[in-house]
Amino acid sequence: MSKRKQNSEDRDDDGSDVSLVDVDFDFFDPNPEIDYIALKRLAVQLFQGDAEALQVHDLTDLILSQPAVGTTIKCDGKESDPYSFLTVLNLHVHQARPFMKALVEYVLLKSSPDPAFHNVLHNLLGPAGLHSQNHLGFIFSERLINMPVQTVPPMYRMLGEEVTWALEENQPYKFSHLLFISRIYRLTAEEAAELEEMTPRSKRHKGSDNLTGGVHPFHPEDDVIAKFATHTIDYSFTTAQPREKDSFGLDLGGRMMLVPADRFAQLVTALNEAFPPP
C-alpha cells in the first residue's frame, strides 16, 4: 500500500542557468511479489564483497516476510523497483535463519578490535544472550546513491510508528538495543582534493567544510545516528575488491553503531531537524 508522497527538487546552481527537476517519491510497504531483486541488490551494496558469505538472499526473504514493518521508496509507481529501503529485524527471534547466524558471527568478528563494543555485543548475541529478554534489532537501511537524504527522516518516523503498532499486537519488536550497519569510505588527502574538485557545488552538503583526507560516512545521516550510539566502530570488509595502483576509486569499509532502543524517538527527532523537507 502507498503510505505517503514526498516531492523533491534537484537544483543546479553552478552556472547562470538553473535547472529544476521535480521528483515524486512514493512510500510503500515491501512487496514480496515485486521487490526481491532490488532489495537483494541493496543488500549486496551494503555489505559489498562480504554479501555472499552473509547469505543476503535469506536476508531478502526475511525482509519480505514481514511487509507490515518497513518502507520502500519508489518513483514510478507500486510496480517499479524501490530506490531506498528501511526496516528492523529481530536477531533473537530469527536467530536460526542462515543470514542471522552469519550476521552474528560477522558483527562479533568486526567488533573484536574494540573490546568494550565486542563485550556488549557478545552479551547480547552470545549463547546466553540469544536466549535472554534483551533483544537486538538490526536496522537495515540502504538506498541508491542519488537518493536525497531528506527522504530518510520520514522513513524512520514510519518505522517507529509501525513498531509501535506491531507491539500493540504482541509482535516481537521490543528491543533493548538497535544495531545500525552502514558504510564508510577512506580518502587520502590527494583523493579528497580530486573528489572535491569533481563534485558540483550543488551536490555538496550545505554548511559543510571542504572534503578532507580520512574516514567519511557514506550516508550523511550516520553522523546524526552516531551521536546517539554508545559504541561505534569502522571496519574493513573481509572480501574487499582490490584497487589498482594509481586508479581512482573509493576505499569502502563498514560501520557499526549500537544505539539503546530508548533513544530511538530522540534520534528520529534529530534526523528531522538535521534533514528537513526541501
Automatic annotation (TrEMBL):
Quote the Pfam families the UniProt record gives: BCCIP
Where's it found, cell-wise? Answer: Nucleus
Keywords from UniProt, A to Z, are: Nucleus, Protein transport, Transport
Biological process terms from the Gene Ontology for this record are:
protein transport
Keyword check for Heme, yes or no: no
Gene Ontology CC terms:
nucleus
**Keyword Transport belongs to the record:** yes
The record's similarity note reads: Belongs to the BCP1 family.
Looking up PANTHER family in the UniProt record yields: BRCA2 AND CDKN1A INTERACTING PROTEIN, BRCA2 AND CDKN1A-INTERACTING PROTEIN
Q: What does this protein do?
A: Involved in nuclear export, actin cytoskeleton organization and vesicular transport.
Put simply, this protein is called Protein BCP1
The source organism is: Cristinia sonorae
